[in-house]
Amino acid sequence: MSTVNPLELPGRRPVRYKDMIKITSFEKVTSFLFALNFLIGMFVVAMFFMWLGTVQIVRIEPVPIVMVEPKPPGDNPKGYEEDVEAPGLEESQDFTEPRIEETFLAVTDAVTATSGALVAMNTGATSSSHGSGLGDRRSPGGTGGGGGKDYSDRWKINITARNIDSFARILDQFNIECVVFGGGVSTFDYAKNLSDTAPTKYSLEKSDGRSVYNPSEENAIVWTKELCEKAGIRTAGRFPTHAYPVELNAILTKLEFDKAQAAGKTMDEVRRTTFEVRGAGGGFQFVITNQEYQVAIRR
């Protein structure tokens, strides 16, 4: 008995094996789309690496931190100079702020306390009522004599510019912001992006700890007030000044340290350092124009 192949039955077209593995149109379209997506992905990756080749990576060397040990707070004689001698009795009246009391009893107490202070000052250190010194305008523990942690008494920063627009660009380059406080207002009002048409204004409940330095030149003082008012900050009866970022404070500290080291001095001997902003390479930079040192007292 012979075996009949079902694929070769009478009246049925023989099925060829190549017809069974034939690639359909759907598979062709699917393969084309897969290859196209793969090529596009490779192209995007290649373009990404080409873009990375055009990126310039600027490596900024970290600013070395100069550790300066602060001196213990001292009792500097009140005055308007940086003199080691205490003012005499006549000068001390100029430094006494007027006090407004609500009752006569409080006024009496104030006069009594003032009289006691004047008697205490009349010691052997001052042989006459007119003292030889002018007193010390620096705050206790300050660094007007060098070595302290507060640089506001030791640093003098001159920022000169041709006009207020140039002045604002200098502040923006160094990320220096204007800050206004006092005047019965409990907030610290800051202004940044000072060269813009509308500078950015924001307020804090308390100071954020940045170093604050007062503008020393007359134009800088006037322009600082105008920039604050431009940002919508009221300056009448308040105190406008500049808030320096931590990075800039570290750069100025390094400049001061290098200048003193080059002169063979220590930071304890630095009495005053004067900084100035000058143009450099289309921008600005801080330079030290003068540095004064303590005079050794011979005993």
Q: What percentage of amino acids are in beta strands?
A: 15-25%
The best one-word shape is elongated
**Secondary-structure element string:** HHHHEHEEEEHEHEE
Poorly predicted regions are 115-134, 136-149
Helix content: 25-40%
DSSP strand count: 8
| Sheet having the most strands | 5 strands, antiparallel
Structural class: alpha+beta
CA gyration radius, whole angstroms = 38 Å
- Provide a count of the helices: 7
Give the N-to-C terminal Cα separation: 139 Å
Mean pLDDT: 75
Strand order of the largest sheet: 4-3-2-6-5
Commentary on this structure:
This protein has 299 residues and is of the alpha+beta class. It has a domain at 77-137. 32% of the residues lie in helices and 18% in strands. The protein is built from seven helices and eight strands, in the order ααααβαββββαβαββ. The chain has a five-stranded antiparallel β-sheet with strand order 4-3-2-6-5. It is elongated. Mean pLDDT is 75; it is low at 115-134 and 136-149.
Question: What's the short story on this structure?
Answer:
By secondary structure, the protein is α+β, with helices and mostly antiparallel strands.
Layout of helices and strands, plus pairs?
Elements lengths: L16 H4 L4 H30 L34 H4 L11 H18 L33 E4 L5 H10 L3 E6 L2 E8 L7 E5 L6 E3 L4 H13 L8 E6 L1 H17 L7 E11 L2 E11 L6
Parallel strand pairs: 1-7
Antiparallel strand pairs: 2-3, 2-6, 3-4, 5-6, 7-8
